[in-house]
Amino acid sequence: MKTVVITGSARGLGLEMAKVFKKNNFNVVISDLMADNLESAKKILENIKTTSKVISVNCNVTYKEDIDNLIDITNKTFGNIDIWINNAGVNQSDKAIWELTKEEIDSVIDVDLKGTIVASKLIMEYMIKQGYGQIYNIEGYGSNDAKMLGLSIYGTSKRAITYFTESLAKEVEERNLNIQVGKLSPGIMITDFITNALGNKEKINLPEKTKKVYNILGDYPDIVANFLVNKMIANTKNNVKIDWLPNWKAFIRFATSAFNKRDFFK
Ligand SMILES: NC(=O)c1ccc[n+]([C@@H]2O[C@H](COP(=O)([O-])OP(=O)(O)OC[C@H]3O[C@@H](n4cnc5c(N)ncnc54)[C@H](O)[C@@H]3O)[C@@H](O)[C@H]2O)c1
Fold it and tell me: How far away, in angstroms, is 239 Cα from ligand 1 center?
């Protein structure tokens, strides 16, 4: 039976992807630093009746030992890791660069960028020994070089994630490894992430202009997860980008926005 490990999967996109993998009879390993959410997420997944199993592991991706432990427990429980998704992420507070504290900057870079880099290194070592596997990293605002006040450090991380993931895919190819590395691009999702900075530490008050864009381009994470997971399961290629909201789709959303009655913020 295949096994998937998803970091930051106690809620939001991570949890929704876990549900789709469970429905597809994957053994599912959810992990997060929010222990309470993790337990309720596990119960939700166990209610999806398939023959595969679910385990939850506390893991803060900024600690190498936690990632080592996540790999170790998964291996001891299931014996294999087919897909690893670096999904854990935090948003930044809605401030200009010079208004952020060093701690806030560290927090975003440590989770969003270094967490993904270190976890990729460690799971690569595992998958090389195993002889196969797939690794996916999550893009976000800034990956395509877009810029706006209040998202500069997050955008710096996500731009770097794109570069890093493509570099990892290239190295895998040059070493002829039977491993596929890819990017997941989830567009804009209506999750706690968009209104909470640095985990749940600070509220973000979205300006009306931003809410309008989110109403046009945004989606709930279950819709996005369904799309991404089905593409991952079918994927056999290295260096793919699985893109929920490509430019043509965003264009259609804007062109038809007069008929769009969605309001996620009522
Ligand atoms: N929501 C969006 O519009 C959007 C858009 C593009 C990309 N993304 C990306 O998608 C991913 C998931 O976002 P989401 O919207 O589901 O957010 P979310 O806040 O709902 O979920 C993120 C999860 O990551 C966990 N997490 C945070 N720091 C962690 C750490 N140090 N170690 C382990 N877990 C940690 C949180 O506890 C939370 O459960 C993130 O990488 C985010 O950058 C989100």
Answer: 22
Do 134 and 84 touch, CB atoms closer than 8 A?
Answer: yes
pLDDT of residue 261: 83
* pLDDT of 263 above 90: yes
DSSP assigned state of 113: I
Query: What percent of the chain is helix, strand and coil (3-state, nearest 5)?
Result: 50, 15, 35
Residue to substitute in 38, 40, 58, 191 for testing ligand 1 pocket (most ligand atoms within 8 angstroms of CB): 191
- What's the CA gap between 167 and 188, in Å, rounded? 25
Please tell me the distance between residue 223's alpha carbon and the centre of ligand 1 in angstroms: 16
| CA pair distance 112, 235, nearest whole angstrom | 24
What domains lie within the chain, and their CATH numbers? 3-259 (3.40.50.720)
- DSSP secondary structure letter of residue 140: -
12 CA to centre of ligand 1 in angstroms? 7
> How many whole angstroms from 199 Cα to the centroid of ligand 1?
8
pLDDT band at residue 266, thresholds of 50, 70 and 90? Answer: confident
Asked if residue 199 has its Cβ within 6 Å of ligand 1, the reply is: yes
Higher per-residue confidence, 13 vs 207: 13
60-69 pLDDT per residue, tens:
999 999 999 9
Q: Say if CB 59 and CB 110 are below 8 A apart.
A: no
C-alpha distances (whole Å) from 263 to each of 131, 148, 225 are 47, 23, 21
| pLDDT single digits (tens) 106-146 | 999 999 999 999 999 999 999 999 999 999 999 999 999 99
